[in-house]
Design goal:
Number of domains: 2
Mean pLDDT: 78
Radius of gyration: 27 Å
Helix content: 40-55%
Largest sheet: 8 strands, mixed, barrel
Shape: globular
CATH architecture of the largest domain: Alpha-Beta Barrel
Low-confidence stretches: 1-45, 54-67
CATH superfamily of the largest domain: EAL domain
Number of strands: 11
Number of helices: 14
Length: about 425
């Protein structure tokens, strides 16, 4: 890894010693954090990678600011997660400004160490998040071009006001028309670059706001929401694109909600409150899209200017979970949101039972397949005109609804038991509905 001989030998020894201690620290950091949060672990993994590759740059191993020469030597090192003969999961390309740049023994030893550490990191990430597949460069370029064309199509999923049963908003979700296939974000998002995501936000937002104007002209008053990745808070281009879209479309800004995704942690070193406040100055609404998820910080809720919080779909999914515990947790999150003056929505509502349950537990808004699946724009007006009546009365007719009613009754009974004077007031107690 390090240059040897001549004037570089002393500096190389010092750099190697310092790097070895940094590697040991970051390996320990990864080990300590991996059980806390997988995305944090991934960040530590990339920190480790950047640290080690930066050392190669300093030593002339990679073309960068320290070397303006064209690469004279390159090597490809495969990462295998299980055994020497297993297929490679990834390939690390190393470039050197000098012929034979990675043939020295100490460099080979270092790269083997790098290869081993990253191989273990990839294996662990795949064990936690599932198998990964490399996207061919030509396909990535193809999707990037489609993103900048009419192939980008926003589909819309309705959100229902649980107090009235009315559809008050639609969430705009990106789809990519690729020949005869309609690709979902799970397919093409992993292949997008940071520039692609800015383009996606700008085009998707403009498309959603323009469509809202068309609905208003047709007498359909629907607010729209658009997702915003946490990385947007560290890139001013997202703010500029939002500002431009609101200005050009000329619609009331409070009809737009930006849902801040917390599928990843917020960028380090970013003043989250200041950046979110900038978006609020545009007159738009903000939502925390993943309340209760691994990255959503409950202690940050009182500080950030969210108008709405959405309980994550993984929490409302009862499959494989104790229904009583899940509903109790949802109930407490709803209470927390209301105590902070936020509107509370629950997403991932897949059946009538959960729709009934979250209504009984006090949620304000619901979203999920029990109401409607995401649909292309041409189907929205037709669906609104023909949708069947949706249950929004407070009767517990389904198992989840009955369980939710029982949880509320138990909670009220517990509160009464904490105050012995309440039992001296039977008339008041009898007014409490079970």
């Amino acid at each position: 890894m390090l240059t040897t001989g001549g004037a570089f030998s002393d500096a190389g020894v010092k750099l190697r010693a310092g790097l070895d201690s940094q590697i040991a620290y970051n390996v320990k950091l990864c080990n300590d954090l991996r059980n806390v949060n997988n995305a944090v672990y991934s960040q530590a993994f990339w920190l480790l990678l950047s640290c080690m590759v930066a050392a190669l740059v300093v030593s002339g191993g990679l073309p960068g600011k320290t070397s303006r020469c064209k690469p004279a030597f390159a090597q490809a090192w495969p990462f295998r997660c299980a055994g020497r003969n297993s297929p490679p999961k990834a390939v690390l390309l190393l470039y050197s400004a000098f012929p034979g740049g990675f043939t020295a023994t100490d460099r080979i030893d270092f790269i083997v160490l790098l290869q081993t550490i990253l191989g273990f990191a990839i294996a662990r990430i795949e064990r936690l998040e599932g198998s990964t597949n490399a996207v061919p460069y030509a396909l990535r370029q193809h999707w990037s071009l489609l993103l900048r064309s009419d192939a980008l199509q926003m589909h819309y999923q309705p959100l229902m006001d649980l107090k009235t049963g009315q559809i008050i908003k639609v969430e705009a979700l990106a789809r990519l028309r690729d020949s005869d296939r309609l690709r979902t974000p799970g397919e093409f998002f992993p292949a997008l670059s940071s520039d692609d995501f800015v383009e996606l936000h700008a085009r998707g937002l403009m498309q959603a706001l323009s469509q809202r104007n068309r609905w208003l002209r047709d007498g359909i008053n629907l607010n729209v929401s658009v997702n915003l990745p946490p990385s947007a808070l560290s890139h001013n281009r997202y703010f500029e694109a939002t500002q431009q879209a609101v200005r050009e479309c000329g619609c009331a800004p409070d009809g737009l909600t930006l849902e801040i995704l917390e599928t990843d942690a917020f960028p380090p070193g970013v003043d989250v409150l200041r950046e979110l406040t900038r978006f609020k100055t545009l007159g738009i609404r903000l939502a925390d899209a993943d309340l209760g998820s691994g990255h959503s910080s409950l202690n940050r809720l009182p500080e950030v200017p969210f108008d709405l919080v959405k309980i994550d779909r993984n929490i409302s999914n009862l499959d494989g979970h104790d229904a009583s515990d899940a509903l109790r947790f949802i109930c407490q999150l709803i209470r927390l949101g209301h105590s902070l003056g936020k509107t509370v929505a629950v997403e991932g509502i897949e059946d009538a039972g959960m729709l009934e349950a979250v209504l009984i537990l006090g949620a304000d808004v619901a979203q999920g397949h029990a109401i409607a699946q995401p649909m292309p724009v041409e189907q929205v007006a037709k669906w609104l005109g023909s949708r069947p009546g949706l249950p929004y009365c407070r009767h517990s007719d389904t198992p989840p609804g009955k369980l939710a009613s029982r949880l509320i009754w138990q909670e009220r009974l517990h509160l009464l038991s904490e105050d012995p004077r309440a039992f001296a007031m039977p008339a008041d107690i009898s007014k409490i509905k079970k």
